[in-house]
Design brief:
The complex is a heterotrimer of chains A (about 425), B (about 160) and C (about 200). Chain A has about 425 residues and is mainly alpha-helical. Chain A has two domains: about 1-65 and about 380-415, Enolase-like, domain 1, CATH 3.30.390; about 70-375, Cytochrome-c3 Hydrogenase, chain B (Orthogonal Bundle), CATH 1.10.645. Chain A is built from 18 helices and eight strands. Chain A has helices at about 5-10, 70-75, 85, 95-110, 115-145, 145-170, 190-210, 215-220, 230-235, 240-245, 250-255, 275-305, 320-325, 330-340, 380-385, 385-390, 400-405, 410-415; strands spanning about 30-35, 45-50, 55-60, 175-180, 180, 345-355, 360-365, 370-375. In chain A, helix 5 runs antiparallel to helix 6 (about 145-170), helix 5 (about 115-145) runs antiparallel to helix 12 and helix 12 (about 275-305) runs parallel beside helix 17 (about 400-405). In chain B, about 25% of the residues lie in helices and about 25% in strands. Chain B has four helices and seven strands. In chain B, strands 1-2-5-4-3 form a five-stranded mixed sheet. In chain B, strands 6-7 form a two-stranded parallel ribbon. In chain B, helix 1 crosses helix 2. With about 200 residues, chain C is of the alpha/beta class. In chain C, about 40% of the residues lie in helices and about 10% in strands. In chain C, about 40% of the residues are buried. Classes of the chains: A mainly alpha (about 425), B alpha/beta (about 160), C alpha/beta (about 200). Chains in contact: A-B, A-C, B-C. The interface of A and C includes residues 38, 39 and 69 of A.
């Protein structure tokens, strides 16, 4: 096959393609197709990879295999009913997505959440962050050959699933955050179970680290793979752990505090080299910090027992079901909220720090009950975009480490 | 100094109009021809190193129906600014920002895919989420939620392979 | 139908063999060694991972040998939302699986399109391939999928591989293909009935 044909097939090959002249396999460009069904692509991502010998000469991601039309769906469903769709964006951290969307709605409506509601949100968000990082750890490790990690992380995830099952009634896709607070209060025994899990969890992180951090294979396969500088991260719109691993202490929980994060005591882990190994270390440390934050939130929940967790603003918040059977007024409020909830005219964007980076919702309302526009700022899409940037010139086997360390979820990438 | 003040100090285009917004970001509207210059000033002189998102709002049936929004974030100043413009016509187009922030390539591709807005100077502007060969722009208001012949490309593929 | 209980030979000295129908023996082997092809498309894929994981452990049902190559699998678990863009790949995967093969539609999205009544989503994976068992839920709990697996095992028990073999050998195979040539709508009808009716003979999907 002549080179010309190959270049035609893969338009992503850059003009300044610098091939290793000493490589005996040099010159025989070969394209391989990874995905959309591939165990290492973490979902339905397709990569068109052009190889020179074993070195990646070019790579072009193809996304959209899970495009479900969520933004259009929001326009036809209305503001409230879109909540269930936000769970299924980044489906390893549903409660974080819920909160992000609820905060954007609250910003647009101009309402505030009661203190206890925010504390419950912080607890749920940090639990979600831990669960998302556990998925990262398990799946990335299994791709790089450490199968044990999958079983260890899923044992922990199952414990967290049980907690969420007890509290929200479902293992995944909980849809428990509402505009103006959360759906129901944290019961005392649920809080106790959360605490028991959180207290034992740092020991489990030590166990994970004892298997990976000093492990020669893990170190060699991640060290200096996929390095990014802070400038590159900013140019390529990368946020979250990837940006922090490159050495920039940018975290929305500190920079633009929401849900009272400014009052919690926690640190932002920062890397130095910005390679896959740094990203791994940053995420491990973030799990420890999340445990710290969640325990503080539990302490505060004990203090604020009995306080309001949901705003009583009948323009946006449903009345409790029991009361609608007794009061005509409440029934009318319920009817109005369900059928015709209007938000003020205007646009608002709120970003939160998700486990992948900055997750945000840009909402535009024209004052009627039909949403004008709902745009999801997905950190995962930006992470996918960076694959060609850092994969070029690496070995094909490094691709697994790169995909794993960029940590995206296709539900959010494709929406 | 917030982002808007920094922009005005560095030289804002004459077409700039301040817009109300319901969040903490400053929001300005400029003419479509001035967008690239404004973005360049914001990046070079005002410290906005990251583009958060690029998207559009279909405000039909208004004239110049598409409102395109660029949201920028400055890590060092810890603030945000949103630049918007209005375009319309049969072939809406605006200049691409890919040479300012390479990361805006996918955002612009998505915007093209969903709204059919052309970004001049974007190398490789093609569909991102919908398959190649798809005929419609789903997020335009006239496009129905259930779609128009959603299985057309699949059925064509099915016919060719047997 | 056939059973694997050793035949009563009348003498305890000769217990070294047992008689059974060939169908029963083949079905017993097939149902207890289903090799799933985990087509984890979206959220359900995470629950599918949980199902393979330590707590639910589908190894108890002989189905833990998940292979990501369709050529080595006989059970396709479609876990998640199928879009029209992904449909071509899914159909190719199904066609590449060797016969006999079965399909579980895990979750409402793959059963019926679920909550995504939108322009890009296939309204049920049975529009492009035949399905044996549908599992509702968004996502279904792993217990529900294990229940589906047991239901599928019961269905396999009722199949007749020898009759099928005779049918297959009587007509020449098309070169290199083992695709099923049924209009999508027929597939929906046949297989829905096949799944839900008790005492049904099962079909030969």
């Amino acid at each position: 096959m002549s080179d010309a044909r190959i270049y035609e097939w893969a338009p992503g090959v850059p003009a300044d393609l610098d091939l290793d002249q000493d490589d005996p396999l040099h010159g025989e460009l070969l394209q391989i197709n990874m995905g959309p069904q591939h165990p290492a692509t973490h979902g339905v991502l397709r990569l068109k990879v052009t190889l020179d010998g074993e070195v990646i000469a070019a790579c072009e991601p193809v996304v959209g295999y899970l495009h479900r039309g969520k933004e259009k769906t929001c326009e036809s469903l209305g503001w409230r009913k879109f909540f269930v769709h936000t769970d299924r964006l980044d489906y390893v951290q549903p409660l974080l997505n819920n909160t992000s969307y609820a905060m954007a709605l609250e910003q647009l409506a101009g309402i505030d959440v009661p203190q206890r509601g925010q504390e419950i949100r912080v607890l749920l968000m940090e639990t979600s962050r831990i669960m998302a990082h556990l998925i990262y750890l398990g799946t990335t490790a299994i791709d790089l050959g450490a199968v044990t990690m999958f079983f260890l992380t899923f044992t922990e995830r199952e414990k967290a699933y049980d907690l969420l099952d007890a509290y929200t009634g479902h293992r995944m896709n909980n849809t428990y955050i509402r505009m103006g607070g959360v759906y129901a209060d944290v019961e005392e025994d649920v809080a106790r179970a959360f605490r028991a899990w959180l207290v034992q969890f740092p020991g489990k992180i030590d166990e994970f680290e004892s298997l990976l951090t000093g492990n020669r294979i893990w170190y060699d396969r991640n060290k200096d793979v996929g390095s990014l500088t802070v400038k590159e991260c900013q140019d390529w719109a990368l946020t979250g752990p990837i940006l922090r691993a490159a050495g920039c202490a940018s975290d929305l929980r500190k920079d633009e505090p929401y849900c009272g994060y400014e009052t919690y005591d926690f640190d932002i882990p920062v890397g130095t080299l910005g390679d896959s190994y740094d990203r791994y270390l940053v995420r491990i440390e973030e799990m420890r910090q999340s445990v710290k934050i969640a325990l503080q939130a539990l302490d505060r929940l004990e203090q604020s027992k009995g306080a309001d967790y949901l705003l009583e603003d009948r323009r946006y918040v449903l009345p409790p079901k029991g009361r609608t059977h007794e009061s005509m007024e409440e029934l009318i409020f319920q009817f109005k909220v369900v059928t015709d909830m209007r938000l003020p005219k205007g646009e608002a964007y709120v970003g939160v720090e998700s486990s992948k980076g900055e997750l945000g919702f840009f909402l535009a309302s024209d004052g009627t009950s039909d949403p004008l526009r709902c745009h999801v700022r997905a950190p995962g899409l930006m992470n996918v975009q960076a694959i060609p940037l850092i994969a070029k010139g690496r070995l094909l086997s490094d691709m697994m480490a790169i995909i794993g360390s960029l940590d995206f979820v296709m539900g959010e990438v494709d929406r | 100094m917030n982002g808007l003040e920094r922009l005005q100090a560095a030289g804002a285009p004459a077409s700039l109009i301040e817009q109300p917004s319901r969040d903490n970001a400053a929001c300005v509207r400029v003419a479509a021809a001035d967008v690239y210059g404004t973005l360049q000033t914001l990046r070079d002189a005002c410290g906005f190193g990251t583009v958060t998102f690029i998207t559009a709002i279909d405000r039909s049936p208004a004239e110049d129906r598409f409102e395109i929004a660029w949201q920028l974030r400055s890590v060092e100043h810890v603030d945000r600014i949103r630049v918007t413009t209005r375009v319309g016509g049969d072939a809406p187009s605006v200049r691409s920002a890919t040479d300012l922030w390479p990361g805006s390539a996918y955002m612009e591709r998505e915007c093209y895919d969903m709204f059919g807005i052309h970004f001049e100077g974007h190398v490789g502007l093609k569909r991102l989420l919908m398959p190649e060969g798809y005929d419609h722009f789903p997020l335009r208001k006239e496009f129905p939620h259930q779609g128009i012949e959603p299985d057309r490309l699949y059925r064509e593929w099915e016919r060719t392979r047997s | 139908m056939g059973s694997l209980v050793p035949a009563d030979t009348g003498s305890s000295q000769e217990a070294g063999f047992f008689a059974s129908r060939l169908d029963a023996l083949v079905n017993w082997g097939r149902k207890n060694s289903l090799w799933p092809m985990p087509l984890g498309l979206s959220c359900c894929g995470i629950e599918l991972m949980a199902m393979i994981g330590p707590k639910f452990d589908i190894a108890r049902f002989g189905a833990e040998a998940a292979r990501f190559s369709p050529r080595q699998c006989d059970l396709l678990i479609v876990a998640g939302t199928l879009t029209w863009k992904m449909a071509e790949a899914t159909r190719t995967i199904y066609d590449q699986m060797p016969d006999p093969k079965w399909v579980i539609a895990m979750g409402v999205c793959s059963s019926s399109g679920g909550m995504y009544d939108s322009y890009s989503v296939v309204q049920g994976v049975d529009m492009i391939l035949p399905v044996d068992v549908y599992v509702p839920g968004c996502p279904p709990r792993p217990d529900a999928v294990i229940d589906a697996l047991i239901k599928l095992q019961r269905k396999i028990e009722r199949e007749s591989p020898t009759r099928r073999l005779a049918e297959m050998s009587s007509k020449p195979l098309e070169a290199g293909t083992n695709t099923f040539n049924m209009a999508p709508n027929d597939a929906i009808k046949t297989h829905r009935i096949g799944t839900f009716l008790e005492g049904d003979e099962g079909d030969d999907a």
